[in-house]
Each structure stands twice: as structure tokens, then as C-alpha cells.
Amino acid sequence: MDKRLLVTGGAGFIGSHLVRRLVQQYPDYKIYNLDLLTYAGNLENLSDIEHFGNYHFIRADITDFIKVAEVFNNFGITDVIHLAAESHVDRSISDPTAFMKTNILGTMNLLLAAREAWKSDYSAHRFYHISTDEVYGSLGPEGAFTEHTAYDPRSPYSASKAGSDHMVRAFFHTYGLPVIVSNCSNNYGPNQFPEKLIPLIINNILHQRELPVYGQGLNVRDWLWVKDHVSAIDLLFHQAKPGQTYNIGGRCEKTNIELVGMLCDLMDQKLNRTPGSSRQLIRYVKDRPGHDLRYAIDSGKIENELGWKPSIGLEEGLVATIDWYLSHQDWLKNVTSGSYMDYYKKHYSK
Ligand code: NAD
Ligand code: TYD
């Protein structure tokens, strides 16, 4: 079928992997990548596919309703996969309003534009909203988030994502818009902006800088290789029924200190450094306010209904991630120049 698929946030970390997959696997679809190119968006992430005939980039802000509606009209958008967001918890603590605007108002604008553009017949369309496990709040030592876990967001980031999830589901129940929602655990892999834990630690080990670990390093995250998230998105976009929610996770829990230790050891090997030397750089720093203790996803629904599972484990994924950053040091240098260093100094000198 001739789809004209709008991917928002396609110049970011997960979005760029998704756009590449869709452009390469679905030559009959036209992929429109709408992105504002904030500090987190980078067209370098897509330089290998920008010449493909079925790819088109649009620089736009999802908080601008008129522009969003124009994009639906001008390009005859048939489907949406919505990833554009402010995505970093620490930034949401210093500037919550930006998260409310982009994540809630931006999502609302896309929903309104889709409702208007598709109103004659919703049945052939899909509005797929990409969300996070952080909307479910913080777990104790036991259990995992299912699709039925009550929402309990605790950071401005997760509260804004929860707000957007609720609005997406409201458009399903109220207007019949054919929506899908998925809530995924922490992703890692190539092209992730080095404000997030894994690329930040890789970059700092490379430059033999201190490795900031919040609190006691005992918070737990459930890690998923980004290309496995993207394979799940592809599957759900094509197979999930409207109104459905799916959790996606790696079944791969690690404390932050375990993870940072693994990165240190793997990088000592790669860089031929004395074993144990990078671990000397670990520094326990002031904890994040409201730091969620543990996230863990029960991904039984997507595994049992659709046969999805992660293709690789954490160690293999970390080795591939480290290899990518080591062979793309120009990319790292470009994204860590200028405003990144201002952010870094301000955040880590608190
Ligand atoms: P990212 O920060 O790397 O990328 C976000 C992209 O959105 C950037 O390209 C940015 O330029 C764009 N953007 C931001 N504001 C915009 C606006 N107003 N208009 C248009 N574009 C705008 O984020 P990511 O890590 O790739 O996450 C993508 C999505 O997946 C987000 O919705 C996030 O909540 C969700 N998610 C992320 C993770 C994770 O571990 N990274 C896990 C689960 C869900
Ligand atoms: P992050 O990558 O920001 O993802 P999220 O907060 O969305 O889970 O952080 C992952 C974990 O690592 C989280 O528990 C906070 C912790 N962390 C540190 O210990 N030090 C750091 O410098 C950063 C950025 C994160």
C-alpha cells in the first residue's frame, strides 16, 4: 500500500534508526521525517539514507499547529509514528515547561491535525505514539511493569509523557482515532546523545574524565538495544490493533554501577589500557532529585502475541555501541562542542 508516513523526531536517537529501517525496508512508502533539530536532533545521523527517493526531511516544530496541519495537507500524510519529544530527565528538572510544551502540546497538535486530515474514513490510518516505561513510576525490588500497571509518573519528563499518552488514548475513545501506544524501557546504541548515561560514560572514559554516578549507583534500569526497539515499532505499526498498548523491554536489568563497571572493563580492553584503570575514574555524585529506583518491563504481551524478542544481549550490544562511538569520534566531537559543554559544566558542578 502507498503510505505517506510522517515520523516525528526522526533526526534524534531512536527516530534516526527507525527512519533508516523504514526507508530501506519499505521502498513503496514515502517517509517524511519532521524534526525541529533541537540540540538532540542531528541530520548527520541520516547522511547515509538522505539521498533515497522515498525519504523527505521537513524542519518544523510540533508545537506550531498551523505548520503541522500544513504538513498533513501538503503531503497527504496517511500515518504517523510520533517520537519527537524532549527526552532527558535531568533537563526536565531544570526546565519543566519545555517538556510540557513539546511533549503534551506538540502531541495534541499532531492528534488534532490527524483527526482533521483523516476524518472522512479513519480505518486505513494509524497514529502510533512512542512512549516510555517511566510513566509507570518507580518499582521496588520485586515485579515488573505490565500494560495494566497504573500510571505514577514522578519526574517532569515522565509526567509530560504520561500526559501525552492519556491524550492519545482520549482521541481513540472520544473520536475513534486509530491509535497505538508502546512504552519502552531504556534504549542504548549508536547515535545516542551523550547526555544519557551510556554514551556519556563512553565519552568520558575515552577522554579519561571522571565518571559521574548518581547517589550510590544502585538504581536499576532495563536496557534494550535500540535496533530491537525499532524492530518492535515496525511490527506494532503493521500489526497492532487500534486502541492497543504494548510494553517493550530488554529483560535486562542492571544497577547503574554494574553497567558503568562493564563499560569500564570493555573499554580498557578496546583501548589497551591497564585492566581496572577506567574504574578509577568513577565518582559518586549528588543524586538526581526524585530519582526512580527501578524500572523493569514485562514484555510478555508483544512476545506472546507477535513473537517479538530482543535479538542481542547487553554485552554484545555494549561492544557494538563502544565500537560505533570509537569509530565516530568526529560525530562525538561535533555534538559535544559548544552548548554541550555549558550544559555539562552547569549540571555536574551542582
Ligand atoms: P532524542 O532526544 O534523541 O530525540 C528527540 C528528537 O525530537 C530530536 O531529533 C529533536 O530535534 C526532536 N524534537 C524535539 N522537540 C521537537 C519539536 N518541538 N518539534 C519537532 N521535533 C522536536 O530522543 P530519543 O531518545 O530518540 O527518544 C525518542 C522518543 O522515544 C521520545 O518520545 C522518548 O520519550 C521515547 N523513548 C525513549 C527512550 C530512550 O531510552 N531513549 C525509551 C523509551 C521511549
Ligand atoms: P539516563 O540515561 O538519563 O536515563 P533515564 O533517567 O531516563 O533512565 O539515566 C540512566 C540512569 O543512570 C539513571 O538511573 C540515572 C543514572 N545516571 C547517572 O548515574 N549519572 C549520569 O551522569 C547520568 C546522565 C545518569
Please give a structural write-up.
- It is a single chain.
- By secondary structure, the protein is α/β, with parallel strands linked by helices.
- Helices cover 43% and strands 16% of the residues.
- The protein contains twelve helices and twelve strands.
- A seven-stranded parallel sheet has the order 3-2-1-4-5-6-10, with helices on both faces. Strands 7-9-11 form a three-stranded mixed sheet. It has a two-stranded parallel ribbon with strand order 8-12.
- Helix 1 links the parallel strand 1 and strand 2.
- Helix 2 packs parallel to helix 4 (96-117) and helix 4 packs parallel to helix 5 (156-175).
- It is globular, with a radius of gyration of 20 Å.
- The protein starts with a strand and ends with a helix.
- The mean pLDDT is 97.
- Bound molecules: nicotinamide-adenine-dinucleotide and thymidine-5'-diphosphate (TYD).
- Thymidine-5'-diphosphate (TYD) binds next to helix 6 and strand 8.
- Thymidine-5'-diphosphate (TYD) binds at residues 89, 186, 196-197, 200, 212-214, 219, 221, 256, 288.
Helicity level: 40-55%
The counted number of beta strands is 12
Please provide the ordered H/E string of secondary-structure elements.
Answer: EHEEHEHHEHEEHEEHEEHEHHHH
| Strand neighbour order, sheet with most strands | 3-2-1-4-5-6-10
Bound molecules: nicotinamide-adenine-dinucleotide, thymidine-5'-diphosphate
Distance between the termini: 53 Å
Average of the residue pLDDT scores: 97
- Report the β-strand fraction as a percent range: 15-25%
Question: Major sheet, described briefly?
Answer: 7 strands, parallel
* C-alpha-based Rg, rounded: 20 Å
